[in-house]
Amino acid sequence: MIETKQLKLIPCQLKHFEAILSDRQELELILGAIVPDNWTDFFDVIPDMYRSLLSDPSLLEWGAYLFIHREDNILIGWGGFKGKADARGIVEIGYEIIPLYRNRGLATEAAWGLIEYAFSYSHIKSIQAQTLAINNASTKLLQNIGMQFVGTTDDPNEGGIWHWYLSKENYKN
Questions:
Q1: Domain boundaries, the chain
Q2: Which of 32, 50, 108, 155 fits a disulfide with 17 by CB distance 3.0 to 4.6 angstroms?
Q3: Distance between CA 48 and CA 141 in Å, rounded?
Q4: What's the pTM?
Q5: Rounded to the nearest 5°, which phi and psi values hold at 69?
């Protein structure tokens, strides 16, 4: 588990994925926290993440994390890593916060928690992220935590995608 001032980032184990896919009340019991309806806009990626973890349990620490707001004891989002580091020591982060908890600095706090966790491993040399190619809260967050814009690609489903990068040497904890 990754802990920050206001959040607990809980690694999404197989039992979490199974409850997410079948029974929200079971997820509440496992987490010991409230799970609101519609807590994610990215439900469609969950089955693939579940299958990946099922086939490779070592992905646990480099996969999804559920974000629990400590004071309110509620699942407010999720994110984490998009897999293990590549051969160059790069991992990618992503995050999502439910609308009611946005604009409170919680996504920034979660991103910092993920970054600090990743950089605590000597083999991690840098972190990357992707956003839609528009200025929005996510791009502002990445700029505020010191990530540098490195380029744009075209995704057939999403359109323009901006790529962001933070090296361990430029990381300020």
A1: 2-170
A2: 50
A3: 27
A4: 0.92
A5: -75, 120
